[in-house]
Amino acid sequence: MRFPISHLLVGGARLLGDTGALSAIDKKPVDGPLFLGREGFVSDAQADRRHHGGPDKAVHHYSSAHYAVWRREIGDRPVLDAPGAFGENLSAPDLDESRVAVGDRFRLGHALIEVSQGRQPCWKLNHRFGQPDMARLVQKTGRTGWYYRVLEEGRVEPGDDLILVDRPSPDWTIRRLWHLFYVTPLDRGELSAMLTLTHLPESWRALARRRLETLAVEDWSPRLDGR
Question: What is the DSSP letter of 185?
Answer without folding.
Answer: T
